[in-house]
Amino acid sequence: MSKMKLQQILAYDVITKISIENNLAPLSIEASPHGKVELICELDLTEPYEEFNLEDCINTSCKDGNMEIVLDEVDGLDKHFFSPNRSFVKILVPVDATLEVGVENLPASFSGIHNTLLVSSENAPIRIQDCNGNKTLTNENGPISISNCEGDLSVELENGPMAAEMISGATLSIKTENGPLKIREACFPKVDIESENGVIMYETLFVEDAVINLKTENGVVHFVLPDEMDFELRARTEQGKIKSRLSHPVTQEEDDYVVKNGEGKTKINIFTENGMIKLGEKDKINLEFLKAKIELLKESLKNVNDGEDMEKVHKLYANVSEYVTARVANAKEAIVKDNIKEQLDKLHKLIEDFDYQGAKEKTIAGVDELTGKIHDELSKHMGKLGTKITETIHVHTGKHAFNMNNLNEYISKVVNSSLIKPYLGGEMKAKEKDEVADRSRLKILDMLEAGKITAEEAEKLLKAIGKE
Question: Is this structure's pTM higher than 0.70?
């Protein structure tokens, strides 16, 4: 084994866009501490190559502010990418340059960057953490993981799963065919999520005057929202059921089940053809989410160099203030609200009086102290914030009869999906086929016992899989 290393700063006066095509090794992209593009690369080769040159597989160019970095595959590279001494490529990027990244199978991770991000992948895992800026992601079969990020988010998937938490922006758009979606602690005033066969789990933080649309053909939809939100929720399922753990009554208007709180300023529309819709409340403050927002505020304050940077600081403070204020609005004791409001007012004045051209250390120390007090006060009084979620469960059955044709169509879609088709082909061993059939038999019997299908329908399905 031989290890090849490269560390190079790509210094150009103006860079507005960075395009990266990677087929070399697992890629990580992070923020540059010096405002320049820096390339760091380590490759483990299976045998020594005395005349091997890293520049043979790394091509860079820049014209009119557009930088291109092409990382080509290398023969003789150790493919054990998850070993302790694995090969890797790390690229440090300056703030604000648009990033366009293309990968096929190699993992790509993004951490701590403040850039517009466009990522396309075939099968590679994509991980994004602590990043600000609008993001457009496409992935055919690989998973996507996002945490603690701000900015508009647009995602297109085929079969890969997606998990995201502590994300916020103006718009969220997700389209997927078969992959499950799990979105927690999201804060977007405009949401459009559409799936064919996948499960959708979406948990929203407090938003005002929002429009949230969730739609799936055959999957379950689980939607969670804070109890203090002003909203009107309309849910419809053709073949499934609706279960509500909301503290507000569920009424029926033609085919829609409706839940309303206040004036109904935020509009929520949920639709599924064959799946269940589950509704729940979340009224407790998320201290981890708040802590992450506070850290972003402090980090931005440290890096202020001009008026534009100060605008970002004011925006981050507004996000923290709005989040905290909304969650203490229902506090049972006035002293709790007063104490937290006092700390927020002091924090606001400290930021307003901040002189970024002078000494920063005193202000940053003050911000650290005040945000710590806010966090501790909220943690101490968690039980006094908001109201308890009711344990009453409302179950509403769709008025349409169970349709055998729809079930057959659903089964055909799942069986023919690219995810499981290889396991159902002629190459499957007899034992494996029998195991799949046994699991299907148990599922059909569960559906029969739950009253979701009739005995006649169950008999037809069991006959179809050879388990009558």
Answer: no
